[in-house]
Amino acid sequence: AAESRAPPPGCRDGAGGAGAVRAGGRDRGGRLRHRVQGAGPAERLMDVCATVRTEHEIKVTLIFEHVEQDLKTYLDKAPAPGLPPDTIKDLMRQFLRGLDFLHSNCIVHRDLKPENILVTSGGQLKLADFGLARIYSCQMALTPVVVTLWYRAPEVLLQAPYASPVDMWSGGCIFAEMVRRKPLFCGNSEADQLGKIFDMIGLPVEDEWPLEVALPRCAFPPRPPQPVEGFVPEMEPLGTQLLLEMLTFNPYKRISAYDALQHLYLQDGGAGKG
């Protein structure tokens, strides 16, 4: 399997804002070959966790299976004309099941993008990089600086209160990207990103615009919604319906992960036509 071709144990395999990633391995007895440097007694929490306590900080090492590629790499490697429709549906089912699990436990990921989704050689999808994930409640204030710009929900761009629907918006952008093989909204600032979003979904009505936000509705020219087919021409009609429900401006009206899993597009007998 592709996952077995991991870098040599101890090799630095990557890094992010929350820490570094190193490759490891197991001996014939199933024991880890590469031990955490300076690790004392380690407690195992589910699949693993070693804590290293120093004078100034506590380091936590999580041990996971090695997955060679993220979704972006997976899409880039797909031969033309792209992923088969059934493969996209299977990936979306897995993605939404993962999100439904998070959201049902009051966890919002907040940084969903193709680079933070892993795909094994067998086509198994895994949500990754929970560095910005938070447990939330309706009364909780969360920082507005989350999610890579192109996958950021309108309420985050406007610095309005938000919760789990931000993940569904990011998921809609990723869904479209699976079909298009390129990002859907590529803005270079918050205002430009909103403008590109409104180019497709139209400028929301006044009643839908949140109060006391960074940008007033009058900052954007009126524009009607455009057919999704102009942005994602390869998507079948039922997929278009689901995409629009995921890319609904009002987060209270945006489809949930649970409801998205019930959508006809993702059912085994779902026809391509709406």
From TrEMBL:
UniProt xrefs under InterPro entries: CDK, Kinase-like_dom_sf, Prot_kinase_dom, Ser/Thr_kinase_AS
Primary location: cytoplasm
Region (Disordered): 1-33
UniProt-listed Gene3D superfamilies: Phosphorylase Kinase, domain 1, Transferase(Phosphotransferase) domain 1
GO terms for biological process, alphabetical: cell division; G1/S transition of mitotic cell cycle; regulation of G2/M transition of mitotic cell cycle; regulation of gene expression; signal transduction
UniProt xrefs under PROSITE patterns: PROTEIN_KINASE_DOM, PROTEIN_KINASE_ST
Reaction(s) catalysed by this chain's protein: L-seryl-[protein] + ATP = O-phospho-L-seryl-[protein] + ADP + H(+); L-threonyl-[protein] + ATP = O-phospho-L-threonyl-[protein] + ADP + H(+)
SMART domains cross-referenced by the UniProt entry: S_TKc
Membrane-spanning segments: none
Pro residues bias spans: 1-10
Keywords: ATP-binding, Cell cycle, Cell division, Cytoplasm, Kinase, Nucleotide-binding, Phosphoprotein, Serine/threonine-protein kinase, Transferase
Localization, UniProt: Cytoplasm
Protein kinase domain residues: 1-266
Domain of life: Eukaryota
Enzyme Commission number: 2.7.11.22
Gene Ontology MF annotations: ATP binding; cyclin binding; cyclin-dependent protein serine/threonine kinase activity
GO cellular component entries: cyclin-dependent protein kinase holoenzyme complex; cytoplasm; nucleus
Protein family (similarity comment): Belongs to the protein kinase superfamily. CMGC Ser/Thr protein kinase family. CDC2/CDKX subfamily.
PANTHER family: CELL DIVISION PROTEIN KINASE (PTHR24056), CYCLIN-DEPENDENT KINASE 4 (PTHR24056:SF129)
Protein's recorded name: Cyclin-dependent kinase 4
Organism: Hypotaenidia okinawae
